[in-house]
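Milestone M4 deliverable, item 7.
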Amino acid sequence: MNKIITRVLAAAFLTAGLVTPAAAAPVPSPTEDGHVYLSVRGIAPATGPWTEEVWLDCPGEEGVNHPNREGACTALDYADGNLDRLPGDKNRVCTTVNEPVTATAHGTYEGREVH
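Output delivered:
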């Protein structure tokens, strides 16, 4: 996964406020078009390790699992399931805080595996 995707995923999770303990996310049943597990992990200097994780189901119910399901599904459709083709957000402000994270994504899109 390229650096832009990592930054976009990290920013999306951070702005959604989905900090959870480092435990596996509940597994919803797969949907027809897209079923992707997204995870961002890091270590905050003041509080230690953290994990944010969410399932993205397309189609799915708004507000269930991913906090911006409609926008994320639209982006996934635009990229035809290829996560490296996601456009990113060029207008997002960088805070220049150096806290490296590890972002992962895996699942299926239109019957194909995505990573």
